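Pilot study result, target chain (304 residues):
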Amino acid sequence: MKTLEKIFGKVAIPLMTPFTQTYAVDYKRACQLAERLIEKKYCDALIVAGTNGEFHALDHSERIQLFKEIKNAVGDGFRLIAGTGATTTAETIQLTKEAEALGYQAAMVLPPYYGIPTQDELIEHFASLADATSLPIVLYNIPIFTNVNIEPATAVKLAEIGNIVGIKEEAALMPIQTSDIMMKLPKEVDFSVYCGDDVMVLSVLAQGGSGSVSGGAHIVGDLLMSMVEKFFNGQVREATELHHKIFKFARTLGIGHRINPIPMTKMSLALTGFEIGPPRKPFLPPVKDEIEAMKSVLIEIGKL
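Predicted structure:
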């Protein structure tokens, strides 16, 4: 088994960050959410301060405190990955070193956003990070938010660095990029591809992917875990039936022309019995029509 598969397992959840009604980080509720997902067996690993954790809305000290609180709550008995992406190489290294000191098992790192680095600059960025830490590094390719794609040739070149062990691909934008990566990888290289888009998990698995990193798994983690397991067991028809349920839910997260799924995911979690407060502004909570649409889907897939 590859290094990343030992850390992520079949499904890893980027933990949502709860906020109070005054938009302060609710660390106690975050720990309760982590414990809930572990108890329900909705995932094999948790990612703290990832995109679904609204890392972009947290300041540096809040991210570090969130790392600490979740680690203290979960202890050493469950796999934890730190989201340490930042706009500069220096801050990315600093966050990753903090996570390493706290005992996290890996770091998941997106490209520096807004600045739109070149492919050579991406290689320099990730190589510098890998040199500064002994943690396994997982690339996080999400061009819809960073406006830069980690090209397959870049991913393969970075895979030659010993502690860069895989990539999370937002596959709906580049549906066959997983194949481009897998076909270029030397067989001896320890590198895995995980799907970061809930509507594309089966497609990525069929191209050689290893599993899913899913924000939607806060609600449908049991379905997703079962789907991945059934696919690898050769039960493709049964996996496809589960995919159709997950697909309906995931598509509804983007209702109302939403690009970012966080407001709808938080609302869905509340509808299924676990309130974690609003998203931080500028994101707004869902309106009545969006809530009703999600209720209908949750009932249809057996979650309400």
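One observation from the pilot: The longest strand covers residues 164-169. A full batch analysis is planned for the follow-on phase.
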